[in-house]
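User: Assemble these into one structure.

Assistant: Restating your components, then the assembled model:
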Amino acid sequence: MPEPVNLADVARLAKVSPATASRALSDHPHVAEATRARVWEAARALEYVVSPDASGLARGTTGRIAVVVPHLSRWWFGAALEGLSDVVREAGRDVLLYHLGDAAARRAFFAELPARRRADAVVLLGFGVDDAERARLERIGVGIVSAGTRIGNHPSVSIDEYVAGRQAVDHLLHLGHRRIGMIVTTDPELDPGQPEGRAAAYRTALADAGVAHDPALTVSVPWSPEGGARAMGELLGLSDPPTAVYAHTDEVALGAVGTLRRAGLAVPGDVSVIGIDDHPLAALTDLSTVAQPAAEQGAVAARMALATLAGEPVEPVATLPTRLVIRGSTAPPARGVRGVS
Amino acid sequence: MPEPVNLADVARLAKVSPATASRALSDHPHVAEATRARVWEAARALEYVVSPDASGLARGTTGRIAVVVPHLSRWWFGAALEGLSDVVREAGRDVLLYHLGDAAARRAFFAELPARRRADAVVLLGFGVDDAERARLERIGVGIVSAGTRIGNHPSVSIDEYVAGRQAVDHLLHLGHRRIGMIVTTDPELDPGQPEGRAAAYRTALADAGVAHDPALTVSVPWSPEGGARAMGELLGLSDPPTAVYAHTDEVALGAVGTLRRAGLAVPGDVSVIGIDDHPLAALTDLSTVAQPAAEQGAVAARMALATLAGEPVEPVATLPTRLVIRGSTAPPARGVRGVS
């Protein structure tokens, strides 16, 4: 491994003292222009890099944006992180990644606040916090931005969860379904602030259509495709099972489709299924869904964080549009409308 | 936003000079035990955090591991990054994330080497480099570790790509298939060092079984589920289409299954399909596959990087086992063995 080039090497090549080399590289005012040029040329020739930590400390900044995520192997989080990291890189800053995948990691993070003094801003991706955690987070003393959740009054970007839910449930109602199941996904330990919009949309869409609410048609499961498979099994076990199912995410909807296939039921012939996300596999599995822009949410959060750093005004809440994508997993109920109670 | 606590606040509360407070917090030897205790107590009371950059610079370390990834929204990369980041966090260090998603980002990274002086080690996740890029990378002057690819003689962890490929193709041969298609996935811009093992396994498995190689049965597509869908379309267009298909990854295999379904063909009744990975959706879609431990590869790479830092011996190449997972997408050919030329 080659020895890293140090300031003394640069000074030697430029034929100046290390102190002069240091002043020239930090754009100190009292350095002759010819000397400054010679030192920079030597630095370039040797590929010398001014230590970013040292120069950042002098400026009082770290050059880093801290990102907190509860998951990395789920589509939304990976896509949002991609969108964020590209914007941060283009702005010449680095991403400091904090993956808090379980309760222990989460507790340790909020107790120790490792991001403190290591980043110029903190961005939470799909990471809800309670009031105590928010208060701890604010002790980091830098700007806080979130995507997918609201953190107090800090700037945030998300979709309108209620509108997305209405797009999905209204589609099923327009097709003529009246017996509609809902698979709610929960992640209580990781997302205490999980928005209620997707479930509220189901209740009001049914009410607006004059369909009585049957609590047996709502099943809550921890997030996972396996959770979706299990929830669909519960719904099929009802004496009057649904003709259509609205799942809160595509990955869970795909789990439900798996159960229907294994049960020998046709999608959408016997049961229609719709999700939310437009996961890359939704197109391939012909799943109807409500598309949300995940990478764009990460990118907007990054731009909000950079604007905060630059002292520029930041709109407190950005809402990105969602879009109903009708594919082959939804159709009118085969046996016509079945009565509910 | 609260004002961050500084050293002067700690010194004031502990009733010592800032210089003494600094010495006490950096465990300087010439500080009386009672003074040291009083300063630490004040620091704790004020939740003062010693600037990690400043203390790291004094030690000549940054406390950070740089991670380079070509993708974040594909399963393997997200899972490997989860495994890595948990190990790094437990070791009290931070992850600096470099997502290089296109040729421009890649060129800029190797030209500027932003990770230089910002990290104590560099880990590449599923990121192949050519010789010129490797030489540039080595200029960062810290340990280099990789997962999923080999980078010169630097420590690396991966599965045995050839063995994984043999597990998949031998399974199809054992079922009686002789006309077996292969969907090769390429990512030339991002992975010039992509291992050849998965394709080599196909050729030798067929040769070992006495099956003549038909180049028409190999289709190469850029990685994506859509690529898999397109490749399957090409294979179906052959005058003598395959009875089984081996795809290099599950996401691509699921694309192929989508095309078969849309063409009205049964899986595995008409065509068997197998992938590699054991993506979370493989279980739900009943896809036969060869399982590889993605999170574990990230975790092993992290432990290798930490061992390098600690000056401990590191085994140069770790190979993690893969496992054939037989599900409902593979079965014996329905119409018996069909001849090949």
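Chain A touches chain B through 66 residues (CB under 8 Å).
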